[in-house]
TrEMBL record, chain A:
GO terms for biological process: transmembrane transport. Keywords: Cell membrane, Membrane, Transmembrane, Transmembrane helix, Transport. Residues 55-236 form the ABC transmembrane type-1 domain. It is found in: Cell membrane. The chain crosses the membrane at residues 62-82, 94-115, 121-140, 161-191, 217-235. It is a multi-pass membrane protein. Belongs to the binding-protein-dependent transport system permease family. One of its GO terms (cellular component) is plasma membrane. This is ABC transporter permease subunit. It holds the Pfam family BPD_transp_1. Its main location: membrane. InterPro entries: MetI-like, MetI-like_sf.
TrEMBL record, chain B:
Belongs to the ABC transporter superfamily. Gene3D superfamilies: P-loop containing nucleotide triphosphate hydrolases. CDD domains: ABC_NrtD_SsuB_transporters (cd03293). One of its GO terms (molecular function) is ATP hydrolysis activity. Pfam families: ABC_tran. InterPro entries: AAA+_ATPase, ABC_transporter-like_ATP-bd, ABC_transporter-like_CS, ABC_transporter_ATP-bind, P-loop_NTPase. Residues 20-247 form the ABC transporter domain. It comes from the Bacteria. This is ATP-binding cassette domain-containing protein.
């Protein structure tokens, strides 16, 4: 079964890249390079070190922002889900954060925190955290009552019920929130580099567009998407290892 | 000596010692009066059924005995001690199984022991023994979604047996399994009552099931719930599991209970 899943993934990738290649050859636009040209540009940028230097820059706000969003987001989500007071206090903030148009907030962030790392980390957090918090709190609130009762009747302490029942029961939705949040965090990291100061991968995109080096521009975009996909796959593996039986959802039928 | 034996052979309800006493329990859910002034004794080592139409407060009463719900008034005693919350003397078997889907059979069965701080190796040994006892040997590493409904409830039963509580509380444990599996469960339950020295409190809405498995049947009537009648089947209990369903007394009791309940069924 996993072999087949892998095969299907490879097949869909091949179809996508094939379509890209064809679209680049027609071409659909003079600014749209072929897949092969883009890959060549990507390899060149890796070979001469440009790409590695760019990622050293981009990964800083990305890694810090995602780490903060994941840890803080899950912690706040648990808190909000377990206590109706915190729900009342915090939920609206994250709902607003999720709905707010980020591009409009960036000038305010720059005004308050300058153009350094802080602002960029904040952009990643604003993108990533709300969905993590909201998913976590929702999942915690929806823990099946009978599982909690089961815990109490077998003498689990409050802490054990949280650690051994509520968190594992909520984990599928928490992980779904993490996946969405991390994808949004990647968008945030690039957005920050395009809108605040051009550094890292954002700089490659901006610069190569300004000199009409479209293969390099698309190579940079492709690389960040690839990184995001690889990271999300890794996260999925972690989830399977941690909560094996959860894959099939709840047993209540 | 022979006199004592006689007493044991023919239990007189008044002489039986109670493992669980329910005294003047009332329970309101807001404006809904679920139980009113309900009193009932549960003899030690026997199986007592709570039988009644759905919505009459059977689950509510069982959860109050379990210490999972606070009664509005009245009190419960288990072995002479007042119940203030869940305790090691009671174990619960849930109607919807309440298994942890992320944990395999052996971890589910060992959950109660884990919460009591029993070390892993000892816990797994005990869990394995009860998994074998309920007939699930070989499924220790399976996950709940890989098991049928009947097998899942066997896991729930093994979990409750593993903590070796004196009182087993079962909330319609067989209502979610198919008819054939249910009959097998009922036979196995009779064996458990005989072999384990435990007090069973068994909630059901099936008249036949109650008469088949019970030493004592408490019929509850709704709005607000109270004990309508207590029936103690006596003659067919020792005739073997295969003969119970055609015993005249069995059939009479089933008819008699239906006559009491029919007016409460829309
Ligand atoms: N948490 C609750 N909140 C409000 N009403 C409840 C709650 N639980 C049960 N009830 C009501 O109490 C009555 C008895 O319920 P229950 O004990 O579940 O009955 P049974 O198990 O006999 O079907 C029902 O009328 C039900 O609607
Ligand atoms: Mg019920």
């Amino acid at each position: 079964m996993p072999r087949r899943a892998l095969l299907l993934k490879l097949l869909s990738a091949a179809i996508l890249f094939g379509a890209w290649e064809v679209a680049g050859r027609i071409p659909v636009s003079y600014a749209f390079p072929t897949f092969i040209d883009s890959m060549r540009a990507l390899l060149e940028m890796f070979a001469d070190g440009t790409m590695i230097a760019a990622y050293a820059e981009t990964l800083k706000p990305l890694a810090v922002g995602i780490a903060i969003s994941a840890v803080l987001g899950i912690a706040i989500g648990l808190w909000v889900g377990l206590s109706s007071v915190f729900d009342w206090l915090f939920s609206p903030i994250f709902v607003v954060m999720q709905a707010a148009p980020l591009a409009a907030l960036i000038p305010l962030l720059v005004l308050a925190y300058g153009i350094g790392l802080t602002s960029k980390v904040l952009v990643v957090c604003i993108m990533a955290m709300p969905v993590i918090v909201l998913n976590t709190s929702g999942a915690v609130r929806n823990t099946p009552e009978s599982l909690k009762e089961m815990g109490r009747s077998f003498l689990a302490s409050e802490l054990s019920i949280i650690l051994r029942i509520i968190i594992p029961a909520a984990s599928p939705v928490i992980f779904a929130g993490l996946r969405l949040g991390i994808s949004a965090g990647f968008i945030g990291a690039i957005l920050a580099e395009l809108k605040i100061t051009p550094t890292g991968v954002g700089d490659i995109i901006t610069f190569s567009r300004s000199i009409a080096d479209y293969p390099s521009m698309y190579a940079a975009i492709f690389s960040i998407i690839l990184l995001a996909v690889l990271f999300l796959n890794l996260l999925e593996k972690v989830e399977t290892v941690l909560f094996e039986g959860n894959q099939r959802g709840y047993v209540s039928d | 000596m022979s006199q004592i034996e006689k007493l044991i052979m023919q239990p007189d309800p008044a002489a039986l010692e109670s493992a669980v006493s329910v005294r003047h329990i009332s329970k309101n859910y807001g404006p809904v009066e679920a139980l009113r002034d309900l009193s009932l004794e549960f003899p030690r080592g026997q199986l007592t059924s709570l039988l009644g139409p759905s919505g009459c407060g059977k689950t509510t009463l069982l959860k109050i005995i379990a210490g999972l719900l606070e009664p509005t008034s009245g009190e419960i005693e288990v072995n002479g001690r007042k119940v203030t919350g869940p305790g090691p003397d009671r174990a619960f078997v849930f109607q919807d199984f309440a298994l942890m889907p992320w944990a395999n059979v052996i971890r589910n069965v060992g959950f109660g022991l884990e919460m009591r701080g029993v070390p892993t190796s000892e816990r797994e040994a005990i869990a394995e023994r009860y998994i074998r006892q309920v007939g699930l040997a070989g499924f220790e590493k399976s996950y709940p979604h890989e098991l049928s409904g009947g097998m899942r409830q066997r896991v729930g039963l093994a979990r409750a047996l593993a903590v070796d509580a004196e009182v087993l509380l079962m909330d319609e444990p067989f209502s979610a399994v198919d008819e054939q599996t249910r009959r097998k469960f009922q036979e196995d339950l009779l064996g458990l009552v005989q072999n384990e020295n435990k007090t069973f409190i068994f909630v059901t809405h099936s008249i036949e099931e109650a008469v088949y498995v019970s030493d004592q049947i408490a019929i509850l009537l709704p709005r607000p719930s109270r004990v309508h009648e207590i029936i103690r089947p006596s003659s067919f209990r020792n005739k073997g599991v295969d003969n119970i369903r055609r015993d005249p007394e069995y059939l009479d009791i089933v008819d008699q209970i239906w006559a009491s309940l029919r007016s409460y069924v829309e």
